[in-house]
Amino acid sequence: MKVLETDIAVIGSGPAGLAAALEASRLGKRVTLIERSDDLGGILQQCIHDGFGLIRFKKQLSGPQYAERFIEELKASDVSLLMDTTVLSIENEHKLIRAVSPKEGVLEIRPGAVVLAMGCRERTRSQVEIYGTRPSGVMTAGTVQRYINLEGYLPGRRAVILGSGDIGLIMARRMHLEGIEVLGVYELMPEVGGLARNVYQCLIDYDIPLHLSTTVKEVFGDERLEGVRVVKVDENRRPIDGTEEDIACDLLVLSVGLIPENELSRKAGVLISPVTQGPVLDESMMTSVPGIFAAGNVSIVFDLVDYVSDSAEAAARGAVRYLDGQAPSAEPLDVILGNNVASLLPTQYRVDYTGDELSFYLRVCKMESNVRVALRQGDRVIKSRKMPVVRLAEMVALTLLREDLALIESGMPLDIHIET
Amino acid sequence: MEGKLICISCPRGCELLVQTDERTGAFISVEGNACIRGSLFAEAEVNHPERMMTSVVSIRGAKHCMLPVISRRPLPKGKLVEAVRAMRSITVEAPIREGDVIAEDIVGTGIDVVAARSLSCRCD
User: Do A197 and B70 touch (CB under 8 A)?
Assistant: First the structure.
């Protein structure tokens, strides 16, 4: 069995893994990047639409273009790549990684620190309640995206989309442009799940109808999907009798949410937060297992890839400080979720943190206008930011600089609120 | 005349209130934008709406069979469907570098379509 030693092992080469590997390498560490497929870039390679990288590169790039910038830098760096290599487990005490690849067979990687960057996974039919048969033609938006953009297949002719998340909206446009008739987007909630600009440029541009407070109740068809039954729902999301409508279609596209992919993290004994569904993280993006860090969508589902890259660089810097023996060691303060805060990253902070800045990322429970996002400690406001509006679909970032962090004292927990 | 638009220049998605000329339909003014991109978008959206074109073309000799492509600049919105259709008849050979021109002057717009990623030969 081949045994490899490295300073930092990064698991996954999507936007988080690429950014983490590069940052750790820039800081002088030996890095091994482990990727289970034969392609770098993760999901970005099938997200061929533009709109990525406005914050980081001040440009609207397509997914592959965003990935390419990191891949070019990676090829010029001395990061070691293990492609086609699937991690099976991470032993928590010594952070020993077991992996397999067709070329090497079973591999053992012995890193000083690990950055988890496995991303997230789509919810499937079995995770939402849809009755009926089990025909082919029911698939997630990401699968449809893969068929069309990577493999060159059209997976249907008449499509219904359930869920109005950004991927669902993007795929409505993509399917329409490739000649699939898109009959409508159905959303259980009274509010659209994706960004307003995607409703505008993906649905309104092509007259694709959006039905809010409506869901797919049942699917029909034996071998192949023949139709779906949609129904309106009340404010408690219960179907309203008599509002059913049957729609003939051969493709049902599910865009019903994303879940951080943490099987490996759980196996490694990492504590998972019920709020983010990702690992409980501290200010350095370190999990409950010392030396194991998390970055990007494995830690919380981000809305913008720019934030994914930022979080990954923060995790890499944390891992480097850990290896250099400079990791903060003070008792962590909890960061408590206050008014209208649905999820938050990170949820722990140590006052001896030596980083130059720290970003908190949060999602709200409900849309509100003219608000202030405020991080407080007791009666004192540590940092706040005015926002004209906060929405479910959009993450809010609150970045603290050195002078802001200096205001935080030991002892008392922090709390973060949306104040009206 | 008054109309509502949503700015697509960034994820913020500002809701724009646009005033246009009753007679010609031409752009007059905009409110609700948080930055300069919003006013540029509103004027373009009223007078000559345009969108970036992203699609795929076939590629031979690479590990994938499709290559993502993107227009160098936004296309007139009315030309978008035609441009995406035009991509279907294109096949290129690996290797391809990101930025390589895949189609010149697409559907008479004067705008080139370029590769959005690099794809090496399968054997490399």
Answer: no
Residues B84, B31 share a domain: no
User: What pLDDT was estimated at residue A392?
Assistant: 84
Residue A391, pLDDT score: 87
Q: Return all residues near A61 (Cβ < 8 A) that are at least 6 apart.
A: A50, A52, A53, A69
All residues of chain B having their beta carbon less than 8 Å from the beta carbon of residue A48 are: 54-56, 68, 70, 116
At A388 the pLDDT is 87
Is the same domain home to B76 and B37? no
Q: Is A243 helix (H, G, I), strand (E, B) or coil?
A: coil
Tell me which residue range forms the domain holding A231.
124-256
Nearest chain A CA: its distance from B8 CA (Å):
5
Asked, as a colleague might, if the bond just before A155 is cis with ω within 30 of 0, I would say no
β-partners of residue A381 are: A376
ipTM: 0.93
Provide the domain count of chain B. 2
Pairing of strands A105-116, A214-220: unpaired
Same domain, B99 and B63: yes
CB contact under 8 A, A39 and B51: no
Q: What is the C-alpha separation between B110 and B76, in angstroms, rounded? A: 11
CB distance B62 to B68 below 8 Å: no
Residue B66 bridge partners (DSSP) = B58
* Token code pair at residue B34: 């948080």
Q: A81-90 pLDDT, tens per residue?
A: 999 999 999 9
Q: Give the domain extent around B25.
A: 2-48
Residue B87's pLDDT band (boundaries 50, 70, 90)? very high
Token output for A138 = 């029911």
Counted domains in chain A: 3
In terms of residues, how long is chain A? Answer: 420
- A205-217 pLDDT tens trace: 999 999 999 999 9
